[in-house]
């Protein structure tokens, strides 16, 4: 029986920056198609370094990363960057065209889509995030929550194997936060969500991985990890005041 390869496979990933700082000490992570996983950890834990390896912005000297069975190597980078959709913390890092429609078309056009198929892909992506009615507006005139959803659409338009979300709830008011959660839960896509927002991790991701000092220190059901007060305290993670499980 043919089984699909994991959406993401990280094996014994080691990485040191040029100044000698060892950011990753042999990270192993496997995410199956359709899984939603939160990546938790304090500042400086190595979360961003790990994410930058997933689409080849950084390449490690040792260990390996595969996306949908394809190794992250220089010769595969264009396809890897289509398969790994990174939604950055600041939407302004992703939105730079005069209109929402042009922003969302930019990625798939870059990968060779043109004409009606491109228009259909743009419409599908905007529809998926509830922004189809804003296609001709300038991103500059949207609210923070709307811009976050358009940034998500720019990535969805490339039909990625895995969505990587960097602090998706940051700077959002409670309504925008809830709306984004509903959109993300409705997508049915494989997700890796990097966040300090533990209640958001619980709401969106059945599984969580805690990374600290470049090592995976815990991997299990999100609720189980968040109930372990000693584990959270040891790795500088904290539930909001008054939040109960």
Structure description:
The chain is α/β, with parallel strands linked by helices and 245 residues long. The protein has a single domain (8-234), classed as P-loop containing nucleotide triphosphate hydrolases (Rossmann fold, 3-Layer(aba) Sandwich), CATH 3.40.50. The protein contains nine helices and ten strands. A six-stranded mixed β-sheet has the order 6-7-8-3-9-10, sandwiched between helices. Helix 3 (100-110) packs parallel to helix 5 and helix 5 runs parallel beside helix 6 (174-187). The chain is globular, with a radius of gyration of 18 Å. The chain starts with 7 loop residues before the first strand and ends in an 11-residue tail after the last helix. The model has no long low-confidence stretch (mean pLDDT 93). InterPro entries: AAA+_ATPase, ABC_transporter-like_ATP-bd, ABC_transporter-like_CS, ABC_transpr_CbiO/EcfA_su, ECF_ABC_transporter_ATP-bd, P-loop_NTPase. Keywords: ATP-binding, Nucleotide-binding, Transport. It comes from Pseudonocardia ailaonensis.
């Amino acid at each position: 029986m043919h089984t699909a390869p994991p959406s993401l496979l990280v094996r014994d990933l080691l990485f040191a920056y040029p100044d000698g700082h060892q950011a990753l000490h042999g990270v192993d992570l496997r995410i199956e198609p359709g899984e939603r996983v939160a990546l938790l950890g304090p500042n400086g834990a190595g979360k961003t370094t790990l994410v930058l390896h997933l689409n080849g912005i950084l390449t490690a000297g040792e260990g390996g990363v595969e996306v949908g069975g394809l190794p992250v190597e220089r010769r595969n980078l264009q396809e890897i960057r289509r398969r790994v959709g990174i939604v950055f913390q600041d939407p302004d890092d992703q939105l730079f065209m005069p209109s929402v429609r042009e922003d969302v078309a930019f990625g798939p056009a870059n990968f060779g889509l043109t004409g009606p198929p491109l228009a259909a892909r743009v419409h599908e992506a905007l529809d998926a995030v509830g922004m189809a009615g804003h296609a001709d507006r300038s991103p500059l005139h949207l609210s923070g929550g709307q811009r976050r959803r358009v940034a998500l659409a720019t990535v969805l338009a490339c039909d990625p194997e895995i969505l990587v979300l960097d602090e998706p709830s940051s700077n959002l008011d409670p309504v925008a936060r809830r709306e984004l959660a509903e959109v993300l839960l409705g997508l049915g896509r494989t997700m890796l969500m990097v966040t300090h927002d533990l209640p958001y991790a619980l709401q969106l991701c059945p599984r969580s991985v805690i990374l600290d000092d470049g090592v995976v220190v815990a991997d299990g059901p999100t609720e189980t990890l968040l109930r372990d007060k000693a584990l959270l305290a040891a790795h500088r993670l904290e539930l909001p005041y008054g939040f109960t499980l």
